[in-house]
Amino acid sequence: MEKIIIKGGQTLNGKVRVEGAKNAVLPVLAASLLATKGINVIKDVPTLADVLTINEVLRSLNTTITYSPEKNEVLIDSQDKLSSEAQFEFVSKMRASILVMGPILARNGFARVALPGGCAIGSRPIDQHLKGFEAMGAKISFGHGYVEAEIDGRLQGAKIYLDVPSVGATENIMTAAALAEGVTLIENAAKEPEIVDLANFINEMGGKVKGAGTDTIRIEGVTELHGTEHHIIPDRIEAGTFMVAAAITRGDVIIENAVPEHMTALISKMQEMGVEISEGEDGLRIRATNQLKSVDIKTMPHPGFPTDMQSQMMALMMTSHGTGIITETVFENRFMHVEEFRRMNGNMKIEGRSVIMESPSELQGAEVAATDLRAAAALILAGLVAEGITRVTELFHLDRGYVDFDKKLAALGADIERIGSEESEKVVQFV
Ligand SMILES: CC(=O)N[C@H]1[C@@H](OP(=O)(O)OP(=O)(O)OC[C@H]2O[C@@H](n3ccc(=O)[nH]c3=O)[C@H](O)[C@@H]2O)O[C@H](CO)[C@@H](O)[C@@H]1O
Ligand SMILES: C=C(OP(=O)(O)O)C(=O)O
Q: Which GO terms describe its molecular function (predicted)?
C-alpha cells in the first residue's frame, strides 16, 4: 500500500511556491467547452489527478485536449459538435465533473450527467444547479442514475436566487447563462476568488459577466464564444496548508505566489493564534516562535473561513494552548479526520457540528488513513510534530489536490518520504 512516512520533530525553513488553484482550473477547463471558434490555452495548470480526470471528461465529450504537464498547460479544441453525456465513471471519481452540464446544455440544448451522490464530507446535492437550469427554461428529468436537462432552442436569461451560495451552482449557472438569450441574474451567488477567475475567463472568451466576487452576478448572454489564453489563479488552499506547515513546526517559511487578499479569514485567525505573518516582495512570510493560543473557528462561505482549511487548522490547534472550538457549517459531515487525529492522541470531542479541543495534545506518531483530500494534508501536518513515526495511507485523496506535497515539505526540511506499494519500507534506514 502506498504511504507517506513522516518522522516528527523537524522545524521547517525556506521557500515554497504554490501552484495554480485546483478549484479554479476545474471550472475553467469545463467552461472552455463553451468556445466554438479557436482554441483555449490554459496556463498555470497544476499537475493533479483531478486535472487528468477533467481532461478525460472533456475528451469523452468529443474535444481534443493537449496536456503538457511540464509546461503546466492544457490546450482545448472544442469546435466540433459536443457529445451530451458525462458518464458515471468520471463523475464518481470527481464531483466537479458536474460542471460540464452548464456548457453542454448551453451548446447542445441537451445534457445528460451521472448523479454525483454523496461523499465522505456530506451529501452534496445539486438541486441549486438544476433550479438555475430550470429557471432558464430547461426541463429536468432523472433516470438510471443520470440527470437530464433539455431545452427547445436557446436557454433564456432568468433571475435566480440561490438558497445557499453554492460555488458549483454559481459556476454551472454562469457558464450556461454565458450563451443564453438575454440577461441572467444570480442572487446570493458564491463570492469565492475562483468564481472571479471563471468570470474573467468567460469574458476573455468574449462573454459578458459582471459582478463576480459580489453576491449578485449579471450575465448577458452572447451567441458565440471563442478560444483565449488564460492563467489560473494561485491556490489559496495549498498556500494556507503550507502556512499551517510553517506554524505547526514553529518554523519560518516564505510562500511564493500566494495572494493574501484571497486569504484574509485564514490570515487573521492565524494571527489571532499568535502566528507572525508578513507580506514581503518574495511572498508571504510565516513565522511562529512563541506559544500559540487556541481560538474558535467557524467555517463559512467566502469571505468567511474556508471549510477546505478546517482540518489543517485542527491539526495546528492540537499544538496551541487552551480550549478551542471548530464549527463546520458548510458540510454536514466533515469531521472524519477527528478519529484519525485521536489515533495520534489528539484531545478533542465532537458535539453536533462542533469539535471541542483541549490543547495542547501530546501528539504521537501512528498509522492513519486519509478520509478526504484536506484530511490527508492535515494528518501529514500533524505527523510533522508528532513524537515518532506517522504513516498516512489512502493517498489518492492527497493526489487530487496537492502537487508533490511530500517533496515540497522535504525541501523545507521535513523528514518525510513516500513509498510505493511495491517498495519495502525503508524504516530502519529512515529512522
Ligand atoms: C471543485 C470545487 O470548487 N470544490 C469546492 C466547492 O465545492 P462545491 O461547489 O461542491 O461546494 P458548494 O459551494 O456547492 O457546497 C456548499 C454547500 O451547499 C450545499 N449545496 C450545494 C449545491 C446545491 O445544489 N445544493 C446544496 O445544498 C452543499 O451540500 C454544501 O453543504 O466549494 C466548496 C465550499 O467552499 C469547497 O469545499 C470545495 O473544495
Ligand atoms: C472538497 C474539496 O474538493 P472537491 O469539491 O473537489 O471534492 C476540496 O478541495 O477540499
A: UDP-N-acetylglucosamine 1-carboxyvinyltransferase activity
